[in-house]
Amino acid sequence: MKTNKCAKSKKTLNSNCALDGDSIGDSKFKMLLLNARSIININKRLELESYVKINGYTIVAVTESWATPDISDLELQLQLRGFCSVS
Q1: If exposure means fewest CB atoms within 10 Å of the residue's CB, which of 48, 61, 74, 82 is most exposed?
Q2: pLDDT-derived band of residue 26, with 50, 70 and 90 as boundaries?
Q3: DSSP of 60-87, one letter per residue?
Q4: Which helix (H) or strand (E) covers residue 59, if one does?
Q5: 0.85 surpassed by pTM
Q6: What is the DSSP letter of 28?
Q7: Could you state, in order of their start, the residue ranges of all structural domains in the chain?
Q8: What's the CA gap between 83 and 16, in Å, rounded?
Q9: Using an 8 Å Cβ cutoff, are 4 and 23 in contact?
């Protein structure tokens, strides 16, 4: 199964993320949707990154209801290898 790649290609999601043209097809996806409630906490962030890796999610959507305007998008980004961040 092909995976999402953080690079520019024909089907661009944003300036940093793209999908291979053949990556969707008949592939099955495993998705996680989570309201993190304070993902800025490093322990929660590390736990989430481990959980995603252990359970083999292909799509991860995280909402953050406790964020405030003084917290930048960069502070909320997860460092998940093979995933692209879209905010």
Answers
A1: 74
A2: low
A3: EEEE-TT--TTS-HHHH----TT-----
A4: strand 59-63
A5: no
A6: -
A7: 25-87
A8: 11
A9: yes
